[in-house]
Amino acid sequence: MHMYPPLAVEITTPLLSLRGATDDLLAELAPLVRAGEAVAEPPPFDDPMSLYEVDPERRVQRWLQGVWRGRGSVSADLWRLSFVVVHDGRAVGMQDLIGQRFDVFRSATSFSWLARSARGRGLGREMRAAVLHLAFEGLGADRAESEAFTDNAGSNRISQSTGYVANGTTWATRQGSAAVLQRWQLSREDWLPRRRDDISLAGVAACRAALAISARPPTSER
């Protein structure tokens, strides 16, 4: 049993699993971060982002510090759950879920990256489906949000294919230059017809208590 309950959460689909980002799993991902496997062209992330760090060792250090900082700053007002994506027994990326005053707004935002060597296999969409199942079924979200630069075709395509609707644009900086972010939103009502029965959750009750999220009955009971 983990002293930090979010590390015990696991979401399992027929294709992959999302596991709480323990230090052991982060150590498996570190060589991918060091090798620059998280980045793409055009650059997918807004500033500041440790994955843009030029020096490989500094990149790993800042990335780890960011994950650890997320663990240490959890509160009812703001939390970030970090998961390692495991496919065929290998750690291949990360999927995060972020909540701000979640018990009030019931809205969660996703963030992810996938190693270059694991792209093109449908894992990006499966990761999103898994974390949406956690958000809606496990934590009782009313809506999920995401955003991506308008030229990030892969992320925007995943949002569209999983049922999100466009929710306006905003500006962000990317490596110091201004770029347009497309916002996306998915409501519980739009997710329910797409709800999958082949995704399982473990460790969610203890996690919900740690995040001070009031319980809601599962979808099947509403």
TrEMBL record:
It comes from the Bacteria. Residues 37-197 form the N-acetyltransferase domain. InterPro entries: Acyl_CoA_acyltransferase, GNAT_dom, Ribosomal_N-acetyltransferase. Pfam families: Acetyltransf_3. This is RimJ/RimL family protein N-acetyltransferase. It comes from Microlunatus capsulatus.
